[in-house]
Write a structure and sequence with these properties.
single chain, mainly alpha, 10 helices
Amino acid sequence: MMGAPICIEMSYVLKLWLGEVPEITTYFAQLAIVSQLISVVSIPLITAMLASGRIRNYQIIVGGIGLMVFPISWLLLDMGMGPETPYIVVIVCYIFQLAIRLYMLIDLVKFDAKGFIVNVLLRCCVVCLLTFIAPLVISYLMEEGFLRLVFVVLASTASLIVAVYAFGLNGEEREYMIRVVKSKLGRK
């Protein structure tokens, strides 16, 4: 998950890439990454729904929620909300769509929503949160610059590996990973 170091170092990365960057651009980019991380979690649910072949109601409801992003954003912007509002609306809609997908799959294909929430969503959230801790500490302790970027990326990668191993994998998956790593190291 390279989202952690990129979110943390977004301001510096944008300055490196574009030079002069409006202040709000960093926030926009961070919100775009968060929205995509939420969206990615829905992919297996979308696949399961489409595989069922009964997608009319699904498309009407979930598609309808997606279509509401524009009018809700427009209304909120018209009420004086900030320019980041459409991104926040998208994130809220993605979360709502995820919940609707789970609910619809329970009935449609006898989907284990509780198992998905515990074994996928909860684990992903724990891994994401833990992945941010060390890089955030480094970003607060060091001055902005290339060296900090390198350390944040390294800390994020190490945190991700540890968090995935400790909290993202179950016992069987851990054993499999150990066998794969041992076999790869044994070949060299």
